Amino acid sequence: MSGGSRRTARSRGRPSPGEADAGESARGPRRPVEGIRNGRSRDHGPIRLRDVSLKTLLGLGFLASLFVFFLVNNYQWVSRREDPVVRSLRRAVTPLPAPRMMDLPLFQGEHQESLYWGTYRPHVYLGIRARTPRSLIAGLMWIGIKDGQYFLRHICQDSDDLSTYGWRDHNGRDYGRQEIVDHGLSFMTSFLKEKRDGSGYGGDWAVRLDLQNIKSKVHDAEDSTAHLFFYVADEEGNSLGVQRQKFESHDSTLLAFGERNDVGGWELHLDSQEKLDTHFSGFRTLHMHNLSELVQGTLAFHARRTGQLQLPDAIEDSSNIIVVQISATVPAKIDIAFVSGTNVEGSSIDERINSLTGTMLSTRLEEKQGEVEDKYVSIFNIKDEVDSESMIVGRAAIGNLLGGIGYFYGQSRIALPKGFTQENGDKFISYWPAALFTAVPSRSFFPRGFLWDEGFHQMIIGRWDAKLSMDIIGHWLDLINIDGWIPREQILGAEALSKVPEEFVLQYPTNGNPPTLFLVLRDLLNGIRTGKLLSQETNEITDFLSRAYIRLNAWFQWFNTTQSGKDVGTFYWHGRDNTTTKELNPKVAAISVFYWYASISIFTSSSTFVFSYCSFPFLLPSLSLSLWSRCHNVLDFVLFMTQNHTMPSLDALLTLTSGLDDYPRASHPNDEERHLDIRCWMLLAADCMHSIAELLKMENASAKEYHQMSKQLSDFEKLNQMHLDDASGAYFDFGYHTEKVRLRWHEVKVLDTVQRELVRETLEEPQLKLVPHLGYVSLFPFMMGIIPSESPILEKQLRLISNRSTLWTDYGVRSLSKTSIYISLVNVLDAAATVLNIVVFVLEAGPYRTMAGTLYQELRSNLIRNIVGNYYETGFLWEQYDQKNKGKGKGARPFTGWTALVLLMMTEAYPSLQRKKEDLSNPLLIATSTASSSTMRLLEEIFLILLALAAAVSAALLQNGNFESPPSNIKPNSSTPLLPLSKNNTIPGWSFNGTVYYVTAGPDISLPDNGHAIQLGLNGVIRQTIRLTSIYSQYILTFSITSVNGSCKTPAAALNVSFVDRWFYKSSVFLVEGKYGRKSWESHACSLGRMAGEGDPVVLELRSQSAEADHNVACGPVVDTAILKRFDPLGGYAGEFVNGGFEDGPIFIKNSSEGILLEPTEDLTNTPLFEWAVFGAVKYVDSKHYLVPEGNAAVEIVSTIGAIRTILLLKEGSSYRLEFVMGVPIDSCTGELILGVQAGPTSQNFTLPSNGTGYRKKFSLGFRAETNLTSIGFMNVQGGETSDHVICGPLVDNVSISASLRPQVGLQQLLLLPSLLLLAAVLKIDEEFLRNFPFSDLVI
């Protein structure tokens, strides 16, 4: 519930006359109270007492005492009998009995009023409201045009596909400037707030809309008229008025007006020098989260009646929502001014409107912009080496963070225990109604408060505006309940609820989040210690911490009691399911099978995927049909999945409490677990609480306990005993664990249906030991500065970070090492776990200063370069950056949560986790003057924001796969072309049998790298044993083969490749045919299958297949550069190509320019071309040597019997359009290339002539899905040839599918068409309307 029935203190104190009258009316007219007795005078006489005896009074008193005694004892007895679960729930929704943070004087008066109005609705592109539970709200909608169709924009959502949007500058209080680019339309939205004489409470505000048209080939033909919708709505339900007039003059025009208890009378004015067309509508509803639907429905209804894309100029009775449509020819500049206090005489309305529009507004906006830029430079002091482009990105990072601050009011929903349900069917109880003022991580995906994220947000906001930051932290601390718990995710009010899938709404009182707010509190303490603050700021922070101490203490004790381990001083994140059989690692996303992933993806993306399509079929039936067809596909697929498969709880898949949602923990949870990260968080919190107690000069028992606990948790020897792996120097969690677990499909009969379930199988008894998964958790002691600077463990930690085979990449640091068996799973269902938002460590001067300095500079440079580059390429800051795809952004966008911390990297202004030194004479001071001393730290604080880079595909390289490591006894620089291997000169990494030669390139033998290779003679075989590093992964082998000469009796050199483990065996034979390339070397790729057991030995074997009659050494196959690659299948949505761009395939071999011949296979789950079956000769080609239309790779179907095929899950009976790019693979390929395409029952040939200059073209094919499983295939009908007689064939790339926008025309449509044309004539639909709406879809 949004808490909409509550009134503010301000409204209760100042009821309006109308409200009083309404109250009387509701109760009926006052009537004189009649006397008890007829004829009795209304005058009151003296008070009369009855004549009662003393005995009677004593008797009555005794009985009353007995009654009270009985009530009291009965209440206590009932209380003692109260169910523990009920008592726990009652406590969960009971506020902490302590003074509220927001009642502090520093948050009252001028401060409170100065923050009353703001851009506090982050989930919409432009939204304004007041900091009051039931506010007057305002916002902007507009119609965007894409591919000739209209789309209404309002709520920030990724499906809108905007080129960019976000606050480029914002000061968090009274000014902001936002850029929005929607295909051909670009505009700036500027916000300004001012308090002038005559203004009502909170002042006045203005919005400027500066529209520009982006000219391009795509948009030249599109309409240059922009349709904007500015609305104002009263959440209290107060009636609003609208000025029924046309905007004809250039003077300001009154759009709407009303009156409220908080701001008095108010007016909304429009001002522009452009010619505008305005229309309006009024609605009566309290459901503000449905505003988009209201406008959509009204536009659709009016468009069907009149053929005009405009509001109907009508209002409902007592409308509390007014929407004004403003149509303008682009470019245009439009000002909208809101003035309050208009019901007071002498309020200077005209003067205030003039100051908020036109030239005066331009001047004020320029002044505010200059102030923001000056403050940015002054506070952050960007380093000289940071270029101007990076500075702009830094300003956008803090601007979007400040512009994303929102005000929410409502009640969190607290989950009932399993088996409990309220009488009305609800499985939750409500928290008390509360307000929250908070920043949000992402305006599109996460437009609400997250406790874990807020600590990182405030590390920037606190530097920009400390008082604003304390205001936000104060709101969070006021949400603490009597047990010290804060709900980790705040979903308050109907608007916030509308953006969250139902399964993520409920909050669990046993689940917390890392106490990141202590990071900011430490910054505030350091500000006081270093004496950098003014006395007023010091006093305000001290007052704040004094009031906050009792709440912080309750919060700390909640962690200390509910998350503690079995042993003293140990902690673990409670709540993991120790009974589950559905997950490899309980509370870790372990599903990588296509159907599971697809169903989870649809459910978790419901608000932005299913609902974004299903809620938008408006205006015309043809548009509705196209969108609804997609909608039904998804809904039918979800229905299919839920009927045929058992899906585990989404919340059970993630360890949301730790903030590292899917980081792998011990395989078998129990109370003997010890989690390293929470131990370090508790150290930070304990040390911070001790510092606050000292600042406040507290000498109570709790202050001493915090000091003692801080010393205990910082005990380096104790930490090493519990969590250190001596051999690697890495720190790990501890618990019952085994790596020998796997998931297998099991069929389970439920009633009359058979369902498939993934059930965990444990192949080895778990043991109490360190959990060997290297990643962010392993680095927590390093981040928190616990490791002494002279310890050799510090050197090992630095080497772990810098090791490319584990954590280091060119774009950041992985959240989990490549060697972990869970690396793919961590990156599959990733809510936030692949990003550890902050790493802070302190290095004292010591032996590792040079290594640390080099590492720091390189990592800082990599991160800044990658984030800034992505921003300019895509227009957004991203939640994650993908190592697999050259560091490109992925996940939520725009994401200015922890990604905004790149600003602190640019400035090198890092928050401190330095704990106080015991020998300081003044415990409130830190000696910073010794920083230059040779005994002090080289880098005072190195703040590494490690943006984890998902590695869904990782290369598991074979040892000595290129055979460049020579046999053990070969002489250096030996030029012997063929060296036979024996037991005395084995080749590193490989074992062998039969006749095997070590080949060295020379005048008579040519090798791809002019290096070394292996030739297999008669019965020759080489083997290598590897261990699987993942579960259900697919392994693909790429290798090069040739024969030395062609004088052999067999037609070509033959190689047998086999792959075997305990459960699986596969064998394939490859021939060197020499007709698909100019060179004698051929590169091949084969899938070695999907392995289910991790850690098990697997043998790769390469064997000569030459006939026994061939005793000639030169007839054996020569093998070079064998590379083994691992795929972790991610799957995709229903009706979507998983690998339509062919980017997921084998690894290209260095110095190979002929492409890779793919092993023919009909098995979609065991193919070298991910998700595609291969027939005949098909090449996998790269963009370096071939004319690939887009990306890094494509497919060339070489032979005339060659083909590729995949299967999609579509909606039976629905129409679709298959799109693809057909091209000529290389310039020298000539002839008429013909590609046969089949989609379900429909097939067609496509021709592309080639004259040897290279050519590509996009084609499409419409078809109807006759079954849910639909085959899509491409076949070489006719190929070409190069001038040197090398066979070439059509190249295929960028395969995609969409619901057809052209419905299949049957008899009903044929009869409907004349009716529509007649209707158009009657309604006189103008040409522009017909051109822009997709009526053409109905034309035959």
Automatic annotation (TrEMBL):
Key words of the record: Endoplasmic reticulum, Glycosidase, Hydrolase, Membrane, Transmembrane, Transmembrane helix
Record-listed E.C. numbers: 3.2.1.106
DUF642 domain mapped to chain residues: 957-1124, 1137-1297
Residue stretches making up the Glycosyl hydrolase family 63 N-terminal domain: 114-279
Keyword Transmembrane assigned: yes
UniProt domain Glycosyl hydrolase family 63 C-terminal: residue ranges: 357-588, 655-908
One GO BP annotation of this record: oligosaccharide metabolic process
Transmembrane stretches, start-end: 52-72
Enzyme class: hydrolase
Region (Disordered): 1-42
Keyword Transit peptide among record annotations: no
Alphabetized InterPro entries for the sequence: 6-hairpin_glycosidase_sf, 6hp_glycosidase-like_sf, DGR2-like_dom, Glyco_hydro_63_C, Glyco_hydro_63N, Glyco_hydro_63N_sf, Glycoside_hydrolase_63
Catalytic function, reaction form: N(4)-(alpha-D-Glc-(1->2)-alpha-D-Glc-(1->3)-alpha-D-Glc-(1->3)-alpha-D-Man-(1->2)-alpha-D-Man-(1->2)-alpha-D-Man-(1->3)-[alpha-D-Man-(1->2)-alpha-D-Man-(1->3)-[alpha-D-Man-(1->2)-alpha-D-Man-(1->6)]-alpha-D-Man-(1->6)]-beta-D-Man-(1->4)-beta-D-GlcNAc-(1->4)-beta-D-GlcNAc)-L-asparaginyl-[protein] + H2O = N(4)-(alpha-D-Glc-(1->3)-alpha-D-Glc-(1->3)-alpha-D-Man-(1->2)-alpha-D-Man-(1->2)-alpha-D-Man-(1->3)-[alpha-D-Man-(1->2)-alpha-D-Man-(1->3)-[alpha-D-Man-(1->2)-alpha-D-Man-(1->6)]-alpha-D-Man-(1->6)]-beta-D-Man-(1->4)-beta-D-GlcNAc-(1->4)-beta-D-GlcNAc)-L-asparaginyl-[protein] + beta-D-glucose
Subcellular location: Endoplasmic reticulum membrane
Function, as annotated: Cleaves the distal alpha 1,2-linked glucose residue from the Glc(3)Man(9)GlcNAc(2) oligosaccharide precursor.
Family from the record: Belongs to the glycosyl hydrolase 63 family.
Name of the protein in question: Mannosyl-oligosaccharide glucosidase
Organism: Musa troglodytarum (fe'i banana)
